[in-house]
Amino acid sequence: MAWGRKKSGGRKEPLFGLPAALADLRLSPEDRIPAAVDDDKPKKSVPRRKHEEDDDEPPRERKPRAAKGGAKRRAKSRGRFRFGRLIYWGAVLGLWAAIAIIGVVVWVGAHLPAIQSLEIPKRPPTIQIVGVDGSLLASRGEMAGTNVALKDLPPYLPKAFIAIEDRRFYSHYGIDPVGIARAAVANVMHRGVSQGGSTLTQQLAKNLFLTQERTMARKLQEVELALWLERKHSKNEILELYLNRVYFGSGAYGVEAASQRYFGKSAKNVTVAEAAMLAGLVKSPSRLAPNRNPEGAEARAQIVLAAMAEAKFISDAQAKASIGHPSYKVKPAGAGTVNYVADWIGEVLDDLVGQIDQSIVVETTIDPKLQSVAEAAIIDELAAKSVKFNVTQGALVAMTPEGAVRAMVGGRNYADSQYNRAVTAKRQPGSAFKPFIYLTAIEGGLTPESIRQDAPLDLKGWRPENYTHEYFGAVTLTQALAMSLNTVAVRVGLEVGPKNVVRTAHRLGISSKLEANPSIALGTSEVSVIELVGAYAPFANGGLGVSPHVVTKIRTSEGKLLYARQPDRLGQVIEPRHVAMMNTMMQETLLSGTARKAEIPGWMAAGKTGTSQDFRDAWFIGYTANLVTGVWLGNDDNSPTKKATGGGLPVEVWTRFMRSAHQGVAVAGLPNSQRGGFMSNLFQTASQTSAAPQPAPVPQGGGYRPAPARTSAPPPNPSARPEAAAGLDGWLVDRLFGR
Known about the structure:
Strand order of the largest sheet: 2-1-5-10-11
CATH architecture of the domain at 377-673 and 697-713: 3-Layer(aba) Sandwich
Distance between the termini: 157 Å
Oligomer: single chain
CATH class of the domain at 377-673 and 697-713: Alpha Beta
Number of helices: 23
Shape: elongated
């Protein structure tokens, strides 16, 4: 900067504070900073030429061409800079992405079993249930057929799976990016999950090693395991493993089990249409199982056939022939009532042997022949009379006097309803509960000949009535039980005490909660069929307590014994003399009482009918020295029947079953029966009971809902024999001797 230079060339020092000096202190044009052409470029000092030192010579203008060329160079430089920055940050992001991917792979791998410990797991366990004769009754658990080699299958069977599940199976390495992209596009188009991108290898990995949960972590594990399987096994090995392990619904794992389950034949013999149906099940085995949804299974099979034709695995003619005229014949869903037994066994297995981790064979007490007879008796009776009596369901349990269940029917059709009415359902037993009342009375000192009044009764507004609305005055306990007189049962129940009655029932085997009130004499507390039948068993075996059971042994498929049932040690629950009295009394129910239709030629039998309020439940529990059998009929919604009583339909079912069950069996009498002595006593005292009331027609029910009353009772039937004198006991003798 020039500070007051003179043309003479001498330098004059400024004199601060003097006016003259101030005048010389000014900026010349050369001293000013020229305007910048490009503000973005750093300013450069331009060297001054000699002639520019003259204050009188104006500065030279910049040439426009130089400024334009510089701008281009600068723009080009900026472009290179931006491209370089893009490459740099792209590399940084790529590096971090690679690190993230490696981290995810490491994390997923850390949550998998060690690769060196991975091996193809064992097949799911199968539970085979066999009868007392060793025949197969049912299979439970995860049913798995034998392994079938790929070379033994018809070629169109594996191709059906490839066509519909993984068209590029032989060209990918465990995962299929093309398939994933195609599935993603389809799902976006349908705004939901309409297709899956999993390969057969991925599906196999999931079935073998993973759960069915839908999470990203599980999907990533599936990918890693699929890659491991592809490296470990060949394509054909993977396909064979897949076909032998995939789930097909109805508990069937593998094509062999599924073919046997649905078509009743080996997978080696399936047709093209059947192969297509099997391949179609993989998408949704529970929903498309052909024994449950034949229409859905057939529609899916047609889609598979079209895919096979498109992939050139079968000809168009084969596809059209199979679609237009399917050749498969699906076995109906298991409607056999033995499935109720199988379900019951499944419920108790955990208590017997713990968790099932291997295939087992369960040996049972079920007699297949008796099971078939019981099933037919229930189904036929309901088919013939269910509409007339408005009865829709039934149950039957038959067991030996030792408690071994020989037959069980939990409903009329297992396919329609798996609810077990023999074990799970609890209903009012009505008069079938009365034996526990009279047993308590006998244990308290009464006898079958003890007299009690049959007359109207009022207990604080509750008026129990007999079925016929008739009353017979003084009657014996035997007569009262045989005719199912409600007022006598209530009086005896109050006499011995409801709490004592509850204790007696529980001692004999009733496990349900019982209300200790006066109405318990009429069976108002609910019980199950199996526990009521089990509580009658001591009457048939001499008074020993039993536990109803169906499993005798459990062993592995290789023969190793896991469980063997030990004999009951419940001991004597009824004294033998009391058993004899009760048997004598309950025999009268079949001979002259409410169960006169129940007759087994040559056999001594006893039992009791029962009908609950409003005819909602109809029961009959009867027994011989060979079998104790109980029958219940009613409706699941507890709606009233059209006057179905225990002495009607249940007795008919019981008689049909028991007659067949006792064919070819050596006749045996009821234990400790004192029928002869009791009848002699009746003969001796017949003349002393002439004041007893005249008998009325024997009622058919045991409930306390009244039926229309009869106006008169028939007169006694005198006999020429002295012991058959007038009176109810004389009438009883006549009935016993068929007079």
